[in-house]
Amino acid sequence: MEWSDEIKGKVEKLEKKYAASGQDLGSYLDGLLYTNPLHYWDYTCIDTLLSLQHPKTDFPDEEIFIIYHQITELYFKLALNEIEQIAHNGKNISNEGQDLGWKNRLEVEFFIARVKRINNYFEALSKSFGIMVHGMEKEQFLKFRMSLLPASGFQSAQYRMIEICTTDINNLTQKDIRDSLKGKPISEQAQHFYWMEGSIEVETGKKTQMLENFVKKYMDKFIQTAEAYKGKNLLAKYQSLTVEEQQNEVLITELRQLDLNINVNWPLVHYKSAVRYLSQDKNDVRATGGTNWQKYLPPRFQKRIFFPGLWSEEEQENWGRQWVLNALKGV
Ligand code: HEM
User: Fold this and answer.
1) For residue 298, is it within any domain?
2) Using CA positions, which residue lies closest to atom 19 of ligand 1?
3) Which end of the chain is more exposed for a tag (fewer CB within 10 A), N or C?
């Protein structure tokens, strides 16, 4: 059989590729000969994925609760993938698809494109949160939730990772002592993450069991990640751009939108679900994690802002309020 020039060219490239690492093309061609065709169900591990729901009760709506949490975690993973690429300036991929390592410099266009993606993920999450707010029967929810104590979405490590990899740790500390913690070692500031303060038992004022378990499992990892991302979190990457690049209006708009999406819009649709299920005329229902959620969850109390330099003092002062005003006006 006569080979076309195109095929010959490809074989030559393959030979070069394997020779470069001292390997033999012939053995790889044998592998190709024996490999089975790929199937959708194997590639997506669909059987495994669909076997990962383990409700604790027989209430059918508990499955919605589990699956929607899992969907959210997958979106968080997508967001972290984008953040990692920005942190390392993006991958260098050869025409043959080879990974040539991270690039030396972050290009503004790449930065914008990846932040846009993260915004898309969080906008999809905020839009779909109705699945939680209206998509389960309150009666079922109030019963099956009792089997989930003391677990809470509060214990989502990826949610905290997104924060840690996006901004300076100081912006994630309790707002009243934030200024006094500036410049202190990361391990010290980590003891004052805003969520450490938020997770205090309503009655006793003690740390909740849910918080203790979470800290025990993940705090070391959070500190290590904050150290590793000190010079390459999204805020640091923005600050490392030239003065001219930092003034790029599209980049500024996307970073501000990211701040709003992660620190206002998602927290508020999430808060709506707590109000829908846990608010009652007389005494509010206790959250599974045990926090004083009415005081903890609203963004205007926590005032988490990833890129404070991109907001005016007035905007920072009114953080999270505009949304409530718009909601009241029906915007
Ligand atoms: C009916 C639905 C939901 C309700 C009623 C609810 C309720 C709550 C409450 C009361 C808290 C405060 C901590 C506590 O005391 O437990 C909390 C925290 C949290 N939940 Fe949910 N949640 C719901 C759905 C979700 C979903 C689908 C996710 C997705 C992963 C999630 C992620 C989180 C996160 C990340 C926090 C911490 C927020 C922060 O630190 O500001 N929640 N949730």
Assistant:
1) yes
2) 154
3) N
